[in-house]
Structure formats: structure tokens, C-alpha cells
Amino acid sequence: MRSIDILRAEHDDILKMLDVLERISEKITSCESVPTDHLKQVLNFLEIFAEKHHNAKEDDCLFERIKEAEVPESVTLLAVLISEHSRGRRFIEEMKHLLDAHERGDSNAVMVFTTPALQYIDLYRSHIWKENMILFTMAEEKIPSGKLRLIDQELEVLGNAQIPADTLNTFHETAEKLSKIYLGS
User: Fold this and answer.
1) Given CB 3.0 to 4.6 Å as the disulfide criterion, which of 59, 79, 91, 127 pairs with 120?
2) Which of 91, 112, 98, 104 shows the shortest CA–CA distance to 46?
3) Residues in CB range of 184: below 8 A, 6 or more apart
């Protein structure tokens, strides 16, 4: 499987977790109980799988190789995507801080948690669309096939070095489990 196809498949898991986070946020704003452990699992998935694994492959490899290929129409888009990765990390840190406050007994923190959660969801749905529909298509069309094969090799090495395959499977299983609980799918 080509690396861009793997990134698209990872986007599917991330989108699934965004749907879970949205449903959890709806339950919280309706004053329904949500297990703290589920919030921790979502944040762990977003921080480790989405940010440190997936986005790192984009930031450290794919985006750099697209820049090197000097695709002029990618310059502004890449700047926006890099900025969005940074904003996403800030939203995750804010959610983690609020979850910690909730666990220390701040009864309002979990309700406030929904604000950065919903901002993260909105940001990343749009972000993933831009990558899937514009950036990845542009890369496949504008970068020579030999360079794409090198990107495939580099992303495979980078991905394997970051998170072992069994841990990646655990993240996928977590997304599936929480999806069944909150989405019924």
C-alpha cells in the first residue's frame, strides 16, 4: 500500500475518533455521565496516534518532500496545514489540562472541556479534507513516481520507528471500541 493511501486510512480512524469526541461532548453538554477513562482514551489516541504518529509523518517527511519538489501551488496550503497541526496540539493540551482539573474535583472543567474539543473537531475535519482532497491529490499528480516511492520508503521507516505495529493495532481497536459505544457502529 502506498504511503499516501496509508495516511488516508489513518485519517479514517482519526475521523472516527472525532465523531466519538463529538458524541461525548454532546453527552457532557446534556449533563449525561461520561466515564473519565473514555475521555483519557480519546485524548491518548489524539495525542499519540494523530499528533505524534500521523502528523509527525506529514510534518517530518511528506510536507518536506512536497516542498523539495517545488510544487508552487502547495506553498500556501502547506503553511496552513502546518499551522493547523500546531493549533491542534494546543487544543489537545487544553483538553488535557481541563481533564486533569476535572479529576482534581473542578466540577465545571468537564463542561468547559467541550469547547476545545469541539474546536479541535471542526479544525481537523476541515484539515483532513484539505489533505485528502487537495494536498494528497496534488502530490500524486505533481511528484514523479520515483520520488513518491522514496517517500513511501521514508514514511514506512518513520512510521515503524515511532510506534510499534501492535500499539498501532491497539489504537485502531480503541477507535473501534469507542465507536461502538458512542456511535453504535
Assistant:
1) 91
2) 91
3) none
Helical ranges in the chain per DSSP H: 3-29, 36-44, 56-57, 63-68, 75-103, 109-130, 136-142, 145-162, 165-183
Q: How many CB atoms lie within 10 A of CB 76?
A: 9
Joined together, the cell numbers standing for residue 172 give: 485502531
With CA atoms as reference, report the closest residue to 98 among 108, 109, 90. Answer: 109
Q: How far is CA 109 from CA 46, 114, 123, 180, in A?
A: 19, 9, 22, 26
Please report, as a single letter, which amino acid is at residue 153. Answer: Q
User: Where are the chain's structural domains?
Assistant: 3-183
pLDDT tens readout for residues 25-34: 999 999 999 9
Neighbours of 165 (CB within 10 A): 9
- C-alpha to C-alpha distance for 2 and 13, rounded to whole angstroms: 17
CA 76 distance to own-chain centroid: 21
Q: CA end-to-end span of the chain, whole Å?
A: 26
Instruction: Indicate the residue type of 31.
Output: C
Which cell goes with 86? 500546531
User: Which whole number is the average pLDDT over 104-119?
Assistant: 96
Query: What is the band of 1 on the pLDDT scale with cuts at 50, 70, 90?
Result: low
Q: Note the CATH architecture for domain 3-183.
A: Up-down Bundle (1.20)
